[in-house]
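Protein Record: Sequence and Backbone Structure Tokens
======================================================

Structure line: whole-number tokens from a learned vocabulary of local backbone shapes, matched to residues.

Purpose: to set a sequence beside its fold so the mapping can be learned.

___
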Amino acid sequence: MAYDEVLADRIRELLGGAADLTERKMFGGLAFLIRGNIAVATSSQGGVLVRVDPAQSEALVDTTSARFMEMRGRRMQGWLRVDANGVRTQRQLAKWVGLGATYASSLPPKR
């Protein structure tokens, strides 16, 4: 399944002014990177993958519809999945894009 191009356009609109924004096809979706660090990505499974401060991961999973991204059965701290229903409105999406962009911007640039 391909990623949701309408969702990618919505993310692109929200990140329009981000410094050093790039896009790269990854994980079957489209990742949005700030200074080379993934902030948020559309998912081929629907919804988004968001990179957040690992120290916030548990609290976000406990208080929102997000869940941990899993790789090979292992929970990935700092990487959350949000289903399509959790980013249906612009307000919902803006929250997750903002969290991802803030964290990605706080990391050292990748070259």
